[in-house]
């Protein structure tokens, strides 16, 4: 079976298993949407009437198949709480989260590459010795700690950036970037440090490979050796790790949006879980899973492209 077919089949199986797990786990949690909507004062008749109206009195397999059919056709139903289409609610919050996730992804990629190259440098050992403990400290700090530190330093002490909120990127791009800066950096830092340390390790290992030593012996310039031989052969693990962290950005966005008062998908998901709004919550979680799986699939296909030996593994062609 071709490499991409095996990976695509695995991705589809993961998505299906995730849909079952998400559907069941939300219903196993304490509370239900009817009690959340009516409160403790409602009688049994009101409870049964609303349960029929929301469709939560039907058997679980029927509810699951109905939701899955709607998900595949692009119509996951109405929100239990807002009584509006789930797609409309997601569309209203999508822009804020996409801006935050894209900004954090770009920062994570750039910081990971630059910091990784600096940590592995042999020409400036003092720089590597300074950056090593700094990267270790940043690696140990979770998003909510770095976010609070950034707010204290840049919004409270220096007063150069706003502590929270958001602006329309198209109506006021300069203000939008200011509001986006702190949450994007806080969200990107942990992943960028992991990427940097992984890249530094791969760069040091690749420098000891025979083909690199041969290039050095032939008098190739350090720049040519890095860009032509060392970096391309060190990027495969970096790409896979970057894909994994891209999938985690939506989860991190929930924390960042809470701390920086942004109204994105993370805030919508948190509200949906608190209100037991199953259609919104399970659709948003599946959206996050789908993004993570697709990014991971893309990174694995890229790795197969960068190193054909990986793509041939398990097919019998490697021999």
From TrEMBL:
Domain of life assignment: Bacteria
Record Pfam families: BPD_transp_1, BPD_transp_1_N
Main location: membrane
Transmembrane segments: 98-120, 141-161, 181-200
All copies of domain ABC transmembrane type-1, residue ranges: 94-299
Record bears the keyword 4Fe-4S: no
Family: Belongs to the binding-protein-dependent transport system permease family.
Entry GO terms, CC: plasma membrane
Keywords of the record: Cell membrane, Membrane, Transmembrane, Transmembrane helix, Transport
Topology class, membrane: Multi-pass membrane protein
GO biological process: transmembrane transport
CDD domains assigned: TM_PBP2
Name of this chain's protein: Putative peptide ABC transporter permease protein
Subcellular location(s) per record: Cell membrane
């Amino acid at each position: 079976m071709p490499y991409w077919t095996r990976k695509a089949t695995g991705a589809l199986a993961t998505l299906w298993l995730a849909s079952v797990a998400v559907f069941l786990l939300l219903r196993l949690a304490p509370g239900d949407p009817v009690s959340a909507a009516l409160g403790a004062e409602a009688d049994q008749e009101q409870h049964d009437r609303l349960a029929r109206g929301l469709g939560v009195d039907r058997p679980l397999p029927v509810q699951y198949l109905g939701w899955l059919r709607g998900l595949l056709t692009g119509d996951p139903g109405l929100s239990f709480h807002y009584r509006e289409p789930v797609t409309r609610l997601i569309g209203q919050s999508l822009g804020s989260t996409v801006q935050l996730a894209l900004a954090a992804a770009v920062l994570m990629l750039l910081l990971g590459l630059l910091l990784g190259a600096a940590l592995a440098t042999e020409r400036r050992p003092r720089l590597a010795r300074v950056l090593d403990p700094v990267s270790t400290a940043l690696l140990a700090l979770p998003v909510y700690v770095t976010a609070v530190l950034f707010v204290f330093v840049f919004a409270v002490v220096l007063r150069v950036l706003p502590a929270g909120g958001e602006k329309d990127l198209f109506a006021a791009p300069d203000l939008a970037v200011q509001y986006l800066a702190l949450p994007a950096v806080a969200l990107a830092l942990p992943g960028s440090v992991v990427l940097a340390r992984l890249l530094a390790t791969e760069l040091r290992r690749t420098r000891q490979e025979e083909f690199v030593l041969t290039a050095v012996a032939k008098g190739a310039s350090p720049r040519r050796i890095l860009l032509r031989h060392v970096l391309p052969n060190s990027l495969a693990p970096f790409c896979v790790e970057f894909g994994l962290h891209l999938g985690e950005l939506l989860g991190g966005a929930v924390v960042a949006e809470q701390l920086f008062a942004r109204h994105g998908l993370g805030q919508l998901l948190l509200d949906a879980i608190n209100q037991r709004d199953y259609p919104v919550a399970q659709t948003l979680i599946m959206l996050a899973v789908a993004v993570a799986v697709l990014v991971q699939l893309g990174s694995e296909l890229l790795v197969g492209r960068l190193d054909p030996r990986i793509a041939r593994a398990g097919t019998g062609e490697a021999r």
